[in-house]
From TrEMBL:
It catalyses: Endohydrolysis of (1->4)-beta-D-glucosidic linkages in cellulose, lichenin and cereal beta-D-glucans. Pfam families: CelD_N (PF02927), Glyco_hydro_9 (PF00759). The active site is at D577, E586. PROSITE patterns: GH9_3 (PS00698). Residues 27-107 form the Cellulase Ig-like domain. The lineage of its organism: Bacteria, Pseudomonadati, Pseudomonadota, Alphaproteobacteria, Sphingomonadales. The keyword Hydrolase applies. This is Endoglucanase. PANTHER family: ENDO-1,4-BETA-GLUCANASE. Residues 118-598 form the Glycoside hydrolase family domain. Its EC number is 3.2.1.4. Residues 1-22 form the signal peptide. It comes from the Bacteria.
């Protein structure tokens, strides 16, 4: 069966002109940012070496001439990878060009020194969102290669609630309505559309928009900068893209007056129970997704599975509220009708989440991810922050000023931990909080960023994440930490924060234990075979390879237990470039969004001298 498929698909791919991929260069012991370093920015490479003593290094130009040299700074064993490492610092080289580093007979991958290393990556990473759009055809003129064009997936997504039995045999009753949820972005390698993850991703892009404006770079994504069907409409392209998702979030809200039977006890190691019929108006469904997993490849337009709305949750509701409230200030002058709809949805959602504060997801459905989250105080804080900044209503200020998140310890922003998204907005977006509260929020963010700098000092790879804990989507964990550092830099202009952001960018583009650029199309050893149902050439040559600018989820130390090939891996080494390895090599909107944020932020703030010390 498999062999048959191979026999007739390979010649077809050849007639379509698919180029055989260039062989991958071997991994080097000298790890560099494979796209390059800013002309006047910090420049660090990492050497993995069993040798404890300092070693000589040379920086070679394209003719092989030594243009700079020095000695490595031994670090010891890096806890995040298990490797013994040493640092190579070449901040003082400011001549633009292409280089390699050499230590003994080892050579790094080639890299550049240039003024704007991150600009192209930011643009390519934004294109991911267009290409993940649901409900519309992906047109050849807006994608980097013609084979990436595709027919619209799920173009008429009017869906009703899941009804029938879940995996544990519990019968869910469904509902007596349907919602038109056409549009939005597919989440990842699957074609589910999830509110909590879509919301955080939209917030991230919208936050970037607000921040670029505050940094004086409001035109970074002006109309025409991205390849989009909305080109020429006079609106900012990043906002055009984000609006696709905000509209979807609004469409997931249950109309007033609807009642629904939902389970209040879920994910307690037993079948869902405690079904009650409630007034569900204003709550937000958690997801629209296939009723069973589809195989790879499955083009969105060819998805054969029935799709349903899955039960509303308090987390999804507050998540929509946060983003709708944020949208209501961003589009205030630009689109008053959209603002009115967003603000009305946010207000209704807030009331519904107050009325139903404890409705959690069930992970007993198959065909889609759970995104289950039983702590919603952070979503409530985030939603209150966005509503307050937009409306100034003191009722929301009350929620903020009494919240533990003002002094909470967490440094990680994620789909399930959203308090920092509230903090970041409150710290830098003009609002009517008392000056002392605002000062306290800023001080808290600086404290958290300092904690990241302390971790960086303990990391052999000089990352603001020490230790061997690399979770599912660890690349985004790092990039989300880089966002916190970026906000700390915006508040304080302390160069060390921005330098630590660059460390994260360097890591993602190749300065890591696998000598791997985790972004397709960038660097000489990029990820090539993501887990994705359409960019599935590795699974079936009739499907396209991924476009450039797509971020792998990255090392996942949990993968070592289930994946024989990763057995015994440590932190950064728990990854492989395999389309089937979905726990390490999937792609997702909440991972590409902070990639856009960090690369665009670095590009907008270029020219800052390296940190001392
Ligand atoms: O990003 C999610 C990660 O934090 C979870 O540990 C993991 C398992 O529940 O799920 C990840 O999200 C996936 C989602 O459930 C379905 N679409 C693909 C997402 C990325 O792998």
């Amino acid at each position: 069966m498999r062999r048959n498929r191979g026999l007739w698909t390979i010649p077809l791919a050849l007639t379509l002109g698919a180029a055989a991929p260039a062989p991958e260069p071997a991994a080097s012991a000298i790890r560099v940012d494979q796209i390059g370093y800013e002309t006047h920015g910090p420049k660090t490479a990492i050497l993995a070496t069993p040798t404890e003593a300092p070693q000589d290094w040379q920086l070679l130009d394209t003719a092989g001439r030594t243009v700079a040299h020095g000695t490595t700074e031994p670090f010891g064993v890096d806890p995040g990878s298990g490797e013994r490492v040493a640092r190579i610092r070449f901040d003082s080289v400011t001549r633009p060009g292409r280089y390699r580093l050499a230590v003994g007979s080892a050579r790094s991958q080639p890299f550049a020194i240039l003024d704007r290393p991150y600009a192209d990556a930011a643009t390519a990473a934004m294109s991911f969102f267009y290409q993940q759009r649901s409900g519309v055809p992906i047109l050849a003129r807006y994608v980097p290669r013609p084979d990436l064009a595709r027919a619209a997936g799920h173009p008429h997504e009017r869906v009703t609630c899941f009804h029938g039995r879940d995996q544990r045999g519990v019968t869910w009753p469904g509902c007596d309505y349907s919602l038109d949820t056409t549009g939005g972005w597919y989440d990842a390698g699957d074609q589910g559309k999830y509110v909590v993850n879509g919301g955080l991703s939209a917030w991230t892009l919208l936050d970037l928009h607000e921040r670029l404006a505050a940094l004086g770079d409001a035109n970074a994504f002006a109309d025409g900068r991205l390849a989009l069907p909305e080109n020429g409409n006079g609106n900012d392209d990043l906002l055009d893209e984000a609006k696709v998702e905000v509209r979807f979030l609004l469409a997931m809200q249950i109309p007033a007056g609807r009642s629904l039977t939902v389970a209040f006890t879920t994910d307690r190691g037993a079948p869902a129970r405690d079904f009650r019929t409630i007034d569900a108006g204003g709550l937000v469904h958690s997801k629209v997704a296939d009723v069973a997993w589809t195989p790879l490849p499955t083009a969105p337009a060819a998805d054969p599975m029935p799709r349903f709305l899955y039960p509303p949750t308090t987390a999804a509701t507050l998540n929509m509220v946060a983003v709708a409230a944020q949208a209501a200030r961003i589009w205030r002058e630009r689109d008053p009708a959209f603002v009115a709809a967003a603000l009305a949805a946010a207000t209704r959602g807030w009331a519904a989440a107050t009325r139903v504060p404890d409705l959690y997801a069930s992970s007993d459905f198959t065909g889609s991810g759970g995104y289950g989250d039983r702590t919603v105080s952070d979503e409530r804080f985030w939603a209150a922050a966005q509503l307050f900044v937009t409306t100034g209503d003191p009722a929301y200020a009350q929620v903020i000023t009494t919240s533990p998140y003002l002094v909470d310890d967490g440094v990680d922003l994620s789909w399930g931990s959203t308090a920092l998204a509230g903090m970041m907005t409150l710290a830098t977006t003009p609002n009517r909080l008392p000056a002392a509260t605002e000062a306290a929020i800023r001080a808290q963010l600086l404290r958290l960023a300092d904690r990241l700098l302390a971790e960086r000092a303990r990391s052999g790879y000089q990352l603001p994440m020490a230790g061997r804990k690399y979770v599912w989507g660890s690349n985004a964990t790092l990039l989300n930490r880089a966002m916190l550092l970026g906000v700390a830099w915006q508040i304080s202009h302390r160069p060390a924060y921005r330098a630590a952001m660059i460390d994260v960018a360097d890591y993602v583009f190749g300065r890591n234990a696998l000598d791997r650029s985790y972004v397709t199309g960038f660097g000489s050893r990029p990820m090539r075979h993501p887990h994705h149902r359409f960019w599935a050439q590795a699974a079936d040559p009739r499907f396209p390879a991924p476009p450039p600018g797509v971020l792998s989820g990255g090392p996942n130390d949990g993968a070592g237990t289930a994946d024989a090939q990763l057995k015994g891996c440590i932190g950064q080494t728990c990854w492989r470039d395999d389309w089937q390895a979905f726990t390490v090599n999937e792609v997702a909107i909440n991972w590409n969004a902070p990639l856009v944020w960090v690369t665009a932020f670095l590009d907008a703030t270029r020219g800052v001298p390296p940190a001392k010390g």
